Hints:
Elements: E1 7-10, H1 14-25, E2 33-36, H2 40-50, E3 53-55, H3 58-64, E4 67-70, H4 77-81, E5 93-96, H5 103-110, E6 116-120, E7 130-136, H6 142-153, E8 156-160, H7 166-174, H8 176-193, H9 198-219, H10 223-230, H11 236-246, H12 249-267
Parallel strand pairs: 1-2, 1-4, 2-3, 4-5, 5-6, 7-8
Antiparallel strand pairs: 6-7
Helix pairs in contact: 7-12, 8-9
Amino acid sequence: xxxxxxxxxxxxxxxxxxxxxxxxxxxxxxxxxxxxxxxxxxxxxxxxxxxxxxxxxxxxxxxxxxxxxxxxxxxxxxxxxxxxxxxxxxxxxxxxxxxxxxxxxxxxxxxxxxxxxxxxxxxxxxxxxxxxxxxxxxxxxxxxxxxxxxxxxxxxxxxxxxxxxxxxxxxxxxxxxxxxxxxxxxxxxxxxxxxxxxxxxxxxxxxxxxxxxxxxxxxxxxxxxxxxxxxxxxxxxxxxxxxxxxxxxxxxxxxxxxxxxxxxxxxx
Length: 268
């Protein structure tokens, strides 16, 4: 792993917390991590829970760290970055997790030759099970990319993709947990409709989704192959699959990914 110590965060929200937790679990010393966060209550929480250094001053964070992770809302980009832009230089690495914001826009804000890496993570990073797409900006070299990949591997899996595909990553894995939550809720509702207690139905639904995903990842077989093994001739599962196809579940999921990707492009 590349040297991750000396990492600062602008923004101390959920994703920043997930990364902090993952880095510390991977052996990074808490006192080498700094967080700039405007909310006093949130600063106190991060310091108390993880032992990281906190500040209300983002300039302090940028000045004292070679790697800076921008973890604010896309709408807050200029408000967060302009006050610290003059502190960036070619020997720093700016890593952005802002949906839809292109590296070219970030480079324009922080100045010429500053290495910028764009990442789209997702919320399962909070438990070390995230999925992130990563792209290099114009000036990001191999060392900067390796550092970014190592950092996000602390909280899940990483795929390096062309920046033109990051909106698709946003629509698929970035927003994907919300789709899966809806599926779990719907499965549980079906169980309740058939008489199962709510808690039992929810546990069975969640474990079914988790176990199915794990089986797919471990076997590396195509989902259709695994699905066919569950569908006995004239059985219960193929009858259910027919109902899902009749109601356009597959098409709705595809369109959901497209809608989120389109919105990501609009935010940029």
